[in-house]
Amino acid sequence: MASNTMAGDFVTGSHARNQLHEHEERRPPTRESTTTNKICRICGDEIGFKDNGLLFVACYECGYPVCKACYEYERSEGNQSCHQCHTRYKRHKGCPRVVGDEEDNYDEDFEDEFQLNKERKDYDQNQNHTNGAAIPSVAASVEGKDFEGEKETYNNEEWKERVEKWKTRQEKRGLVTKADDGGNDQDDDDDYLNAEARQPLWRKVPISSSLINPYRIVIVIRLVILCFFFHFRILTPAYDAYPLWIISVICEIWFGLSWILDQFPKWFPINRETYLDRLSLRFEREGEPNRLLPVDVFVSTVDPLKEPPIITANTVLSILAVDYPVEKVTCYVSDDGASMLLFDALAETAEFARRWVPFCQKYSMEPRAPEFYFSEKIDYLKDKVQPTFVKDRRAMKREYEEFKVRINALVAKAQKKPEEGWVMQDGTPWPGNNTRDHPGMIQVYLGSEGALDVEGKELPRLVYVSREKRPGYQHHKKAGAMNALVRVSAVLTNAPFMLNLDCDHYINNSKAMKEAMCFLMDPQIGKKLCYVQFPQRFDGIDRHDRYANRNVVFFDINMKGLDGIQGPVYVGTGCVFNRQALYGYDPPMSEKRPKMTCDCWPKWCCCCCGGSRKKSKGKKKGFKAILGLAGLYSKKKMMGKHYTRRSSGPAFALEEIEEGLEGYDELEKSSLMSQKNFEKRFGMSPVFITSTLMENGGLPEGTNPGSLIKEAIHVISCGYEEKTEWGKEIGWIYGSVTEDILTGFKMHCRGWRSVYCSPKRPCFKGSAPINLSDRLHQVLRWALGSVEIFLSRHCPLWYGYGGRLKLLERLAYINTIVYPFTSIALIAYCTLPAVCLLTGKFIVPTLNNLASIWFMALFLSIIVTGVLELRWSGVSIEDWWRNEQFWVIGGVSAHLFAVFQGLLKVLAGVDTNFTVTAKAADDAEFGELYLFKWTTLLIPPTTLIILNMVGVVAGISDAINNGYGSWGPLFGKLFFAFWVIVHLYPFLKGLMGRQNRTPTIVVLWSILLASIFSLVWVRIDPFLPKQTGPILKQCGVEC
User: Fold this and answer.
1) Active-site residue among 335, 336, 545, 556?
2) Is 240 tagged catalytic?
3) Which candidate in 296, 740, 774, 879 is catalytic?
4) Binding site annotation covers 336?
5) Helix, strand, coil % (nearest 5) of the chain?
6) 190 is in an annotated binding site
7) Would the pLDDT of 435 be above 90?
8) Is 336 a catalytic site residue?
9) Which ranges of 929-999 would DSSP assign to H, the alpha helix?
10) Contact 742, 794 (CB under 8 A)
11) N or C: which end of the chain has fewer CB within 10 A?
12) 586 annotated to a ligand binding site
C-alpha cells in the first residue's frame, strides 16, 4: 500500500465553493511497480519458462496457470490432476515418472530421467513428446479439500534418487537453499514448509450425513403432511363459525408459505475451517516482504451522545492493535454528525494508542479493546510467563482509567453547547457547528510519518472524515456516509479490501483480518468473492436473553445454510469487502473448456455439436439488456482468456484518465469505457477513476499530498454523486434504511459469491439493546427496510431474473423482505383464541380419526424438525425457544407497524425518522433490562395478552356453568390461547419491569387462578341455605 497523506493535518473544504483549508504538505513515497510475469494460482510464485524459452504449461487441456514446482509436487504428493479441469497431468520431458504414467516413449526418456546415458540427452530433447488422449472430467472446484496422495511403489534407492533430483531442481530455481553436509534436517524442514505453504488456506467442512440426511427427510415428510393438512382444512369448513374458519385457513396457508421460504435455503448447510499457519507460510515468510494485501477499516457513527465516545474509542483501539502489518491497515472513522466531541475523543484515542498498541503486541492480549479486556472475569495470568506482565498490566490499567476520565470530561463539556458555537484549540470556530450545513472535514491523526508508539514503531493510520452537508441535498443517511468513505479511502490509500464495522462492534479476535484473507487471497475463489461475512456476537446480554438479542438461530443456522448455496447475506457490520465488487463490476468468469463433439452428426445438429449455443447466448444477453442487467459494464470480463492484466499497479497521471490506460494491451483499451462514461459512472474525479482500475490497490506513482487532499475533499462533497451511479449500481445501494440487505442482493445478482467465516473465537463483538422498547425499535427499523425493498424495483420477487442469482438464494432474499407481512396473519391468528373462547365457536369442526392423525402428524413433524435442526447446528434449545417467542412478539408489534409505515412512506410520501439505537455505556450490569419506556409498539401485544386472559377466564366459567359435557371442546380452545400467552410471556415480563421484584409468572398465575376460583365460588354459593325435600313452584292459581 502506498503511504497515506500527512499525519496531524486537519483539512476542511467545499468543492462547490472552491474552498480548501490545509496545513503543510509532505510527499508520500511512490509505489513500486509490480512484476508482469504470470503468477501460479496455487503458490502465488512466478510460473517461469522452460529451457526453450516458452512459458511452462502444466495442463494442455485447459492451460490452468501452475508453476513447475507445484506441478511436480502435485504429481508426486497430490492427486496428479489439474485443479481446474481434473484431467490427469501428463508427464513432461525430464520430469520424474510416477505410478500411473503411460508407457509411451518409455524407452526414449527412461535413461534421460535417471541420467544413465548422457550421450542420448540431446537427441531425446529434440523428440516430440506425445500426449495421450484423455477424456476430460466435468469441471469442478477443489478448493478447500485435503489432497490425499497415492502410495508410491518405488524402492528406497529409487526414491532417494528422485528426491535428490527434485532438490537439485529446486536449488536451481532458488526455492531451496543448498546447505552444508550437516544441514539435512534443515533441508527437510524447508521442504516440509514449502509443501505446507502450497496447501489450501481453508477447507469446507460438510455436516455429517448422519445429522443432515434425517433432517432433510423430515422436511420432505413435513411438506407432504402439510399438503394433506391443507386438503382437510379447506374441504372441511366450520359452518357454525364460517368467518373465523376462513380467516384461520388464510393465515395457515401464509404460515406454510413462510415456512417454505425459510426452510429450503437451509438445505445445504456447511462449515468452513481456515488455516492461518499456511497463510503465514505463503505470504509472511521470514526475510521476505510481507505480501498480505492492505485493508481499509470503516467505522461509522452519527450521534456521540447516543453512541458514547468511549465505545467508539474502544472499537478504534481494537483496530489499531490488530494482528496485521501496520503499514497495511488504515482506520477511517465517519462522523456523520460533524461532532467536535468525537473529533477531540479521537485525538485522545490516538495518544492513548501509542501505549496501548505495543502493550497488546508484546503480550498477545485478547481482546484488544481495553474496556472489555480489563472487565473480563478470567484469570488474566493464564499462559503469561513474562515477569514484567503484572507490572505493565497494572500501569496500563491505570492509564486507561485516566484516559476514560478525559473522555468523560469531554462528554460532560459537550452537554451544553455555547451560544457562539464550539471553538477549536487554535481559536477558530468549529466548521461543524451547524450539523446540516458544513464543509467536508478530514483529519489524519496517525500514519507512516505521524506519531510513533512509545517504542518508536510505526502505528496504523487513523483518519477522521466528515462529509460535506448542505441544505437541499439528499444525503442518504448511513449508506451515503459509507459511500463517502469508499471514495475518500480510494483516494488516500486504496486498499483492495474494506472492513465495515459499527462504532460499537470491536475486534474480539486480533486475527480477524487474516481469517478473511484465507478466503479473499485464495487463488481459487478469492477473485470471485464479494465479501466475507462474520457472525455478530454480543456483550452485556443477560444469561436468559429474553428478547433473543443474540439472534443465534439466524447466525448459526440460516447463515450456514446460505453459505452452502451462494453465500450469506450482508448484515451491515463485521464484513470484509472486495473493493472491486462494490464498484459494480461483474466477477471474473471461469474459463470453460469447449464441449466434446463428434463427426457422426452434421454440424447443424445442435444436440451434439452445440450449433445453437451462440444463438441462445445472444438471446440470453438480449433478455438481460431488457431487464437492465447488462449495463454493468464488462470491465471485469477482461479477466477471461482473451484479456490479461499486465500489472496490478500501472502508473496513472492525475490530469487525464486516458493516460491511465498505460500497462494495458490494445484489446483492453478498446474494451475500456471512455473518459466520459467513467465520469458518468463514478463521478468527476480522475484520481478516483484511476484507482478503480487498480485491482490490487495502491496509489498511482507521482502523486503528491496536495492533490490527494484536494481530491479527498472533492469526493466527499455533497454534490459529487449527482448524475452518477452511486447508490444505484455502485457502493452501498440507496432506497432502504436496511442498505445492507439491498447491497448484498445486488452483488449476488451479478454472480458474486460470499463466504461465511465463523471461527471458534468470535472475531467481532458488539452491544445489543437489551431494553424491550429499544429492541422493538431496532426490529421496527429492520422490518421497515424490508418493506421498502419489497415496494421498490429491487424486490427479489421480480428483480434480477436472467442474472446469476441461484434459486434457493432468491428464496432466502424473498423471505427477508416478505416476513414483515406475516404480522398481519399473526395478529389475526393470535386474536382467534380469545374470540373462540368468548363466543363458544371454534375454527375446526369435530375431528374424525383421520383428521386427528393429520393434526398429530403435523405437530410431531414440527417438533422433530426443530430437534434435528438443533442437533446439526449445535444451537441450544433455550436459544431456539427464545427465537420462537420473539418471532411472535416482534410480529404482533414492530413488524405490523413497519408494514403500515412502509406503505405510508412509499405510497403517500410520509417519511419516518431513522432512530439510532442507543449503545450501552458502563452502567450497572443489565441495568437497562428492567428500564420501562412506553411506546406505541407495546399496544398490540398488550391487547392480545389481555384478550386471551379474559378469554381463558370466560371459557372456564362457561364450562363450569354448562356442566361436564362442555369441557371437551374447551381444551382445544384453551391450548390455542395458552400458546399465545406463553409466546408473549417475555413481553409481559418486560412490561412489568422490576416492580416489587415479584416474579412475573407468579403475578400471571395469581390473576388467572384468582379469577377462576372466584367464578367457582360464585357457582357453588356456599353461604346460601340448601333446600331439602320437594322443590315448590308457583302454580299460577290465585287461592
Assistant:
1) 336
2) no
3) 740
4) yes
5) 50, 10, 45
6) no
7) no
8) yes
9) 939-962, 967-983, 985-992
10) yes
11) C
12) no
